[in-house]
What we know:
The structure is a homodimer.
Chain A: H1 11-25, H2 32-39, H3 43-49, H4 53-73, H5 75-78, H6 82-99, H7 101-109, H8 115-140, H9 150-162, H10 181-194
Helix pairs in contact in A: 1-2, 1-4, 1-7, 4-6, 4-7, 4-8, 6-7, 6-8, 6-10, 8-9
Amino acid sequence: MTTAKRDTYTPETLLSVAVQVFIERGYDGTSMEHLSKAAGISKSSIYHHVTGKEELLRRAVSRALDELFGILDEEHAREGSAAERLEYVVRRMVEVLMAELPYVTLLLRVRGNTGTERWALERRREFDHRVAALLKDAAAEGDVRADVEVRLATRLVFGMINSIVEWYRPDVPDGRAGAGEREVVDAVARLVFGGLRKAS
Amino acid sequence: MTTAKRDTYTPETLLSVAVQVFIERGYDGTSMEHLSKAAGISKSSIYHHVTGKEELLRRAVSRALDELFGILDEEHAREGSAAERLEYVVRRMVEVLMAELPYVTLLLRVRGNTGTERWALERRREFDHRVAALLKDAAAEGDVRADVEVRLATRLVFGMINSIVEWYRPDVPDGRAGAGEREVVDAVARLVFGGLRKAS
């Protein structure tokens, strides 16, 4: 893909604008007209970069999915006990969510009306299953409690992590909750693994 | 408020239909026309019951808020150690969320464009602060870990609980995750207080 010299837009900056518009208006509620206005370039300039809004959606959710699946290939996600790998993956999920906030936010809002949306939901489910498998292994190794069903525990842990998109804002000093990235990662790891109750 | 004998609609059934439409289309995207079609009654019949869609929204979110605030007045939320009261409140929050699923779902999606929405957001914040205060007291009494900042811990715990609206469906036998109400309540309490790590 080549970038037109006559405008300052790159596929990357166009993507970033599109993601904001998708989040604000919803993907269904966004037209090429909306994208054109938000980006300040003509529709034909957009078509110079992409075939349409669905390609922009696919690129945006791919970016989030690639980062998330990438975690599973990292050394600490592949070596050590299942409980250690799980804790590493949970911490990295929170980091990726904060680093790629708009992309992950969009991924979490995908509903499934188009082929791209259904594909994204399928990939999300696949990622959930990979993490659930780690949790299951950790329970089998005796390091994780076995009195909460694996799928239910996975849903609840993902629920806690994904809820961060609702309030974390990197442009506010230390995020909106008065929490820096490191503090959020540590808090999630402590709560997910140790819970609120003080270790006696 | 009186109910017209000429239709079978009560304010209660109209409210239940309106909540479904608000959830599906978003409050902003819902017109009286949409409500009229979904309810199968004329707009003038709707106006017989309410002044407009904002009154329906207010009634719907009030129902969720009344149930949530009601928890704080219950005996076990007022007596015992802060940690015991907190655990009681967390369990009851999950119960209320599942029992009043569409109403709580709508409450969680409120964005703040109208007076009613801003009022609902303010009431939600007030509820969050009440629970955060309990958490703070429990930490002061030494029963809850003090190494996660109270507001951050509250946000994450609420994030886990609120995420249940994304997947729990009471009309599916035992919910979509294969989890019954009691199992979900126990799972949340175990994870929030004990975490995933097996007690050694």
